[in-house]
Amino acid sequence: MGQLAATVLLILLVGVPLIQLFGTALEDGTGALRRTLGGSTGRAVFNTLWTSVAVTAIAVTAGTGAAFATERSSAPGRRWLRVALIAALLTAPLVSALGWARAYGRAGLADQVLGWHWDGLYGPAGIVVVGAVGAVPLAYLVVASGLASRAEPDLERAARASGATPWHVTRSVTLPLARPAIGAAAALVFVSAVNAFEIPAVLGIPAGFPLMTTRLYENLTLSADPAAFNAAVVLAAALVVLSLVVIAPVDASTGGARARRTGGTMGAVGRSRRAAWWLAAAWWVFLAVTTVLPLLALVLVALTRAVGLAPVPSNWTTNNFATALDGHTYAALSNSLLLSGTAATVAVLLGALTVAVARTRGGRALGTAVTLTFAVAGSALAVAVLLAYGRFLRDTLAIILVAYLAKFWALGHRPLAGAVDRLPDDLVRAGRASGARRFDVLRTIVAPLLRPALAGGWLLVFLFAVHELTISSLLYGPGDETLAVVILNRQEIGDVAVTSALSVLLTALIAVAAVLLLVVRRAAGRILDA
Fold first, then answer.
1. Average pLDDT, whole number, for the chain?
2. How far apart are the C-alpha atoms of 299 and 219, rounded to whole Å?
3. Strands (E), 331-428
């Protein structure tokens, strides 16, 4: 019964919209496909592919280097470096793009202090660099986890004892073992770059440099031409195919793999202390330039009385925050909190249902389908949901919620699935052997152990949903704006100071949710390891 319910819900949330999407895209045969991808939109497809490849190459190379710095070197402060790299992942892409514009664009912080600005920030170079910087923490997490779970310290020690240099150990032993993780990181980063909307919207649209996601946005929201809508549908279908073609083989190859570690732990691969210091310093400088300074620039612009004034204390004011927090913003914030809280609650319930049927026939396939849905571009899901349910839910918060649930179901499922895998089977068997009914075992033993994972899953979905822009920017109606949509709209009309103030508020909200998530995850780890 549970599996049937989960399958029906997945079909309604994902299956029906995607079927409607592809049906609409192909209703005129391949003619619409050729017209869309062969015309000016073909340029957007080409731009998307080459910029995504460039982002992937840079981010995976840097992320792999960061993973080796924290997991395979004696760099000082490696623990804090790990925390800083993961914390950088929490910067919303919209905030990151705006921060770079305020820090390194014309009349930005660097221009005011050093007399230097980056002319290429708006355009393909800026999209690639800022996108790669945002993807480095993601690549780092995947590769670092791979280095930890596939460590073979005996092989590495044997190579060192045989006289191999640290470079030869890395090249001949460690890198081959890390190759699956590096490949998975490359696939995830590529799909994220293809699906990215916020950074191309801020840095690409003003420069007239289209990508698939921004062209879809322009066709769907800025044009009343039926041909533009048809082009948006075709682009959305193409994004779905491209995402699944790249990510499905990775999920299939890693889904059944178990982490393994033999022979204890592997410490630093013998590099000199001086080289380790330089390595650590280089990464701290990277984080300062790419994350800290852009955020600082946003804060200073938000505090400065007028654009163009020096960001010194004598010119500071809180008026920009007062202007930002008007009735419209409060309504948008309420919408964001309502949507995020509801999506988090329902997604965790859906995740629990998916975990409950995981051991049944077809349950594993259901979990795989839920995971793959997370890889589908938010813009494509938004168009699909609009086609399927727009006639009933258009211009309501409900249609945004449906798309959120389709996108974030996996985030409610994965923390619970990981916690269930670590549950002590002996306690469950003891409860059953003592005569307790299955429901009583679930209520008195399993539920208390899973409570931190439930809270962690809830916070994770909330964290992603509260700064989500792609879906909400395509589906919102009058009065249904979210906070991220308000920020984008303010940016498009050139309200620099108020946009910066709103970005700071959004970052603060994300930081609070992230701290709560960290506390809950630590509590979950202590309980399950006890």
1. 82
2. 33
3. none
| Encoded amino acid at 201, one letter | A
Please compute Rg for the chain using Cα positions.
24
- Dist CA 182 CA 66 (whole Å): 12
Q: Judge whether 321 and 499 are in contact, CB under 8 Å.
A: no
Task: pLDDT band for 445, please (50, 70, 90 cuts).
Answer: low
Report the C-alpha gap between 188 and 171 in whole angstroms: 23
Residue 197 DSSP code: -
Lowest mean pLDDT among 163-167, 406-410, 505-509: 163-167
For 165, left (φ over 0), alpha (ψ -120 to 50), or beta?
beta
Asked if 506 and 90 touch (Cβ cutoff 8 Å), the reply is: no
Please indicate whether residue 154 or residue 186 has the higher confidence score (pLDDT): 186
Q: Is the pLDDT assigned to residue 125 strictly greater than 90?
A: yes
Q: Per-residue pLDDT for 146 more than 80?
A: no
Cβ atoms of 73 and 282 closer than 8 Å: no
DSSP-assigned beta bridge partners for residue 373: none
pLDDT tens, residue by residue, 353-398 = 888 777 666 667 888 888 888 888 899 999 999 999 989 898 899 9
By the 8 A CB rule, do 392 and 402 touch? no
Residues 169, 164: Cα–Cα separation, whole Å: 6
How many angstroms separate the CA atoms of 392 and 20, rounded? 15
Domains, the chain, ranges and CATH? 1-39+318-530 (1.10.3720.10), 49-210+269-308 (1.10.3720.10)
Residue-wise over 141-163: b if at least 16 C-beta within 10 A, else e? bbbbbbbeebbbeebbbebbeee
Report angle CA 55, 57, 60 to the nearest 5 degrees. 95
**Residues written for the chain:** 530
Beta bridge partners of 316: 304
CA-to-CA distance for 243 and 59, rounded, in angstroms? 18
pTM: 0.84
Q: Show contacts of 166-170: CB within 8 Å, 24+ apart.
A: 166/269, 166/270, 166/271, 169/269, 170/68, 170/72, 170/269
Q: What's the pLDDT score for residue 380?
A: 92
* pLDDT tens track for 289-332: 999 999 999 999 999 988 778 888 888 999 988 888 888 889 99
Could you tell me the pLDDT band of residue 183, with boundaries at 50, 70 and 90?
confident
Q: Per-residue pLDDT averaged across 170-185, rounded?
A: 72
Tokens for 329, please give them: 């913003």
> How far is CA 411 from each of CA 124, 143, 257, 350, 423, rounded to the nearest angstrom?
31, 20, 20, 10, 19
Running DSSP on this structure, what letter comes out for residue 325? Answer: S
Angle between helices 447-466 and 397-421 (to 10 degrees): 140
Q: Is 347 in contact with 412 (CB distance < 8 Å)?
A: yes
